[in-house]
Design brief:
The chain has one domain: MFS general substrate transporter like domains (Growth Hormone, Chain: A, Up-down Bundle), CATH 1.20.1250.20. Helices cover 74% and strands 0% of the residues. It contains 19 helices and no strands.
Length: 440
């Protein structure tokens, strides 16, 4: 008697089955390049509002609190959509998911070209946030389908470096567009770029050979049992510590995207061009860190260093160091020292982003990785909903804007220090993977 085969969930991938692993190495790097470009556009979309903050506030006559509310509205559906799309990733291919997300980014940028008002800006940012919430975890999930565990450090760093490149390139280009053609031109240019990327990905973005469960005819992946209860996956120290590291890093990122351009112009008296140059410099610092640290992580793992010390501790240290620099900002008198502290406070946290995916993946079965990535991203990126609006309120309630920024920096520093220490002490992938395997 022939035993019936278990039914598997249908996958919405018009491209068919994953490519042959023997011929997929070159295509793996094509996919990596496209995902780097995806993250570049993603962060340019996020940054455009902050880069255009001063002209928008002047034209629409809005307060710091109102601008903070517009900026925070980006995160209203960010976490929820990341969570929902994470679960959907088990049934829908990365090709379909990422192409759809990029197309929605384009749609979200268009309303302000016709009607510029606070409600329209809020609606556009809410839609953009809903489409960008799943972007980082789903693009990382797509990337992991093309590389085995001990070869993911460099691709992960490149994926996150797309964020740094997004700011590095977007800051001067978008600022030039705003200065030369008005702030609406930047939104139009980003919409066109998103459409172009979506079409390219639809042609080349097929799923790779490492995205399936062991025993299903594809390359094996590491991790505990085939499936585990999500409660057990989410309530272990490694995942909780990874979420804490992402939360602290995301707080600095949200503060940077929403308020750093305005801070540089209103408090340090920089011109738009000089502010854009400094922001690009901070992004370049993040880019160098990402390219240096993640390949080092791969090398340490191949030499037998545990994941706790090769990829867990660095993210805790990075967020803690950024928090200390943030706390020192109000105390810096010398211009050179202030600029150096700004670079560390808003740039050093970047390495936490690829590493927190790596530590999470080490304790999660491949079949559940997309969903858990979505959950981790949803909770770790909540600062985008809180930090911009809270900072605006602090600025409006303080006796001066300078005092308001001091309060915002000190609050951010305290939160980042706590998150960094939690990540440093709680992330222990080998221990938690063993515990999950024993209880499966």
């Amino acid at each position: 008697m022939v035993k019936p085969q278990p039914r598997t969930a249908p996958r919405l991938d018009v491209a068919g089955p994953p490519p042959d692993p023997r011929t997929g190495r070159r295509h793996a790097w094509v996919v990596t390049a496209l995902i780097v470009a995806f993250m570049l556009v993603n962060y340019a979309d996020k940054s455009v509002l902050g880069l255009a903050a001063v002209p928008i506030m002047d034209e629409l006559h809005i307060s710091n609190s109102t601008y903070g509310l517009i900026s925070s509205s980006f995160a209203l559906l960010f976490s929820l959509s990341g969570l929902l799309v994470g679960f959907a990733s088990a049934r829908v291919s990365s090709r379909v998911l990422l192409a759809t997300l990029a197309a929605v980014w384009a749609v979200a940028q268009l309303p302000v070209l016709f009607v510029a008002s606070v409600p329209v800006l809020v609606a556009g940012r809410v839609l953009l946030g809903a489409a960008e919430g799943p972007a980082a975890p789903m693009s990382m999930h797509a990337l992991y389908k093309w590389f085995p565990e001990d070869r993911r450090g460099l691709p992960s760093a490149l994926q996150i470096s797309g964020a740094a490149l997004g700011t590095l390139i977007a800051a001067p280009v978008v600022t030039w567009l705003i200065s030369a053609f008005g702030w609406r031109s930047a939104f139009a240019a980003l919409a066109a770029t998103s459409v172009a990327w979506s079409l390219l990905w639809w042609r080349a973005g097929h799923d790779g050979p490492y995205g399936h469960e062991p025993g299903h005819g594809t390359a094996p992946d590491t991790g505990p049992a085939t499936r585990l209860p999500y409660r057990r996956l989410l309530l272990n120290g490694t995942v909780l510590g990874s979420i804490a590291g992402a939360f602290g890093a995301s707080w600095a990122l949200a503060l940077s995207q929403a308020w750093l351009p305005a801070y540089l112009r209103t408090q340090l008296g920089m011109s738009p061009g000089r502010a854009a140059t400094l922001i690009s410099g901070v992004s370049a610092f993040s880019f160098v860190l990402l390219l240096a640290v993640s390949p080092l992580v791969d090398a340490l793992k191949r030499r037998g260093v545990s994941s706790r010390w090769s990829s867990g501790a660095p993210q805790g240290v990075a967020v803690t160091a950024a928090g200390l620099a943030m706390a020192a900002l109000p105390l810096a008198d010398a211009r050179a020292l202030l600029l150096a502290l700004l670079a560390v406070a808003f740039g050093a946290h970047a390495i936490a982003f690829p590493l927190h995916y790596m530590t999470t993946a080490a304790v999660v079965p491949p079949a559940q990785r997309g969903a858990v990535f979505g959950i981790v991203a949803a909770t770790g990126t909540l600062p985008g909903l809180i930090a911009p609006y809270l900072t605006g309120r602090l600025l409006d309630s303080a006796p001066s804007q300078g005092t308001g920024y001091t309060h915002a920096f000190l609050l951010s520093a305290a939160l980042m220090l706590v998150c960094g220490l939690v990540a440093l002490t709680a992330i222990r992938p080998e221990r938690d993977a063993r515990r999950l395997s024993r209880t499966s």
